[in-house]
Hints:
By secondary structure, the chain is an all-alpha fold. The protein contains two helices and no strands.
Amino acid sequence: LTFGGNRRRKSRLRQWPMRLPSTKARVQLRIRMRRLQLVRVHMRMMMMMMMMMMMMMMMMMMMMMMMMMMMMMMMMMMMMMMMMMMMMMMMMMMMMMMMMMMMMMMMMMMIDEMLLCYRAMWMVPGEHPPLPF
């Protein structure tokens, strides 16, 4: 940079003390910068806190949802088990009933045969009625 004219040099010299900040201004600037930095840090911290809170909330929500789902699944399983148990019980009852019926039929048949035998025994040998089987 050349100082061509006298006026220019004068203006440059006049500007120069404005360029160099005084101690008071420097201190003020430093304070302001520190404040800005603090605010920035504070903002960052707040943002981090907010993010953490949001994450926690999301996690809680997810956990709740999972718990609900698990509960629902458990309930469904219980219901299914109950249904299965009921079905098994019904089947068992049916089987028991069938067995009882069969036993009764067998007993009846046996009694019938016994009676027929007794009739055949007590009658006069030539006269007993013809058997149905």
